[in-house]
Amino acid sequence: MRNRTTLAGAVALSLGFVLLYRHVLVKLISDWWTDDNYSHGFLIIPIAIYLAWERRRAFDQAPNRPSPVGLVVVVASIGVLVAGILGAELFLTRISILGTVTGSVLFLFGWQRLRVLAFPLAFLLLMIPLPAIVFNQIAFPLQLLASRVGEAAMTSVDIPVLREGNVLILANTSLEVAEACSGIRSLVSLLTLGIMFGYFTDRRSWVRVLIALSTIPIAIVANGARVAGTGMAAHRFGPAAAQGFLHEFSGWVVFMVAFVMMMALQRVVVRLVPPQRSAEPMAA
C-alpha cells in the first residue's frame, strides 16, 4: 500500500513538474540547439539517468524515510522560479528545476536515498547555461589569454606580429580571437567529458577531482596552441588558412589533442599512485 502511495505521488509530481516547467524546458532545449557553447546539454540528462540507474541497487537498499523538508525545498524552488519569471532571469528559472527535483526526491524517499542520487543530480548542473554576466567575465579573459599565447608562440618562431587586445596583426592579415575562439566552448565540453572520464576510469575521489580540474589548464593550453597554429598558417599560406573548413577542423583536432592530454594525465597518476587492490577473502 505504501509503495502504491509513493508511486502515485511520484506520478502526480512528475505531471505537475512538466506543467510547471514546460516553458522553461522548451527555452532551455532551444538554447542547447542554437548555442554551440551548450550543445552538450542534450547529453547531460541521458547520462544523469544512466548514473541514477547504475545506483538502483544502492537506492533500493537505502532506508525509505520520506522527509517533510523536501516539501519546503520544493516550495522554495517554486519561489525561485516565480522570481526568475518576474525578473526575466533565465538562470533562476532553470536552477529552480534542480531544486524542485532534489526536493521531490527528498520528500518521497528521504535523506539517505537522496545521498545515493547526489552525484547524478549534481551532474545536471552542467546542462544549465551560465548567466550572461558570468559567461562574459570568463570568456573575455580567455580571449586575451589565447591571444597572448598566440603572440608569444609566433614571436618565438620569428613571425612578426603585433597584438592589440584580442587582435593579432600579421604582415598579410589580422586575426581576431573572437568569443567563439576564446576556448570556453571546448572548456565546458572538456570539463563534462573529464568528469565522466574520471568517474569511469578511477574509483578514487581525489583522482576524479584532479582529472576534472585538469581540463581547465588543458583546454587553455590547447586553445592557445590553436590560435598560434592558425596565426602561423595564415602567415605562411595567407588569410584563407584561418577561415572556413580549415579553421573549424582545427577546433576538432585541438579538442581531440586535449582529450589525449587528459588521458595521458590519468595514466601518469595511475602509474605514480596505483590504486590499492582490496585483499582477497581467505579460503574457508
Give structural notes.
The protein is mostly helical. The chain folds into two domains: 2-129, no CATH class; 133-272, no CATH class. Helix content is 73%, strand content 3%. The protein is built from eleven helices and three strands, in the order H-H-H-H-H-H-H-H-E-E-E-H-H-H. The protein has helices spanning 2-34, 41-54, 56-61, 69-86, 90-109, 111-116, 118-123, 132-156, 184-201, 205-237, 244-272, and strands at residues 162-164, 167-169, 174-176. A hairpin with a 4-residue loop joins strand 2 (167-169) and strand 3. The model is unreliable at 278-284 (pLDDT under 50).
Q: Care to give the gist of this entry?
A:
The chain has 284 residues and is mostly helical. The protein is built from eleven helices and three strands, in the order ααααααααβββααα. It folds into two domains: 2-129, no CATH class; 133-272, no CATH class.
Question: Separation of termini?
Answer: 43 Å
Radius of gyration: 24 Å
What value does the average pLDDT take?
A: 82
- How many domains, in number, for the residues? 2
How many helix segments?
A: 11
Indicate the multimeric state.
Answer: single chain
Spatially, the strands of the biggest sheet line up as 1-2-3
Helix-residue proportion: over 70%
Q: Describe the main β-sheet briefly.
A: 3 strands, antiparallel
**Residue windows where pLDDT falls under 50 for at least 5 positions:** 278-284
Instruction: Bin the strand percentage.
Output: under 5%
- What structural category do the secondary elements indicate? mainly alpha
Q: How are helices and strands ordered from N to C?
A: HHHHHHHHEEEHHH
Shape: globular
Give the total of beta strands. 3
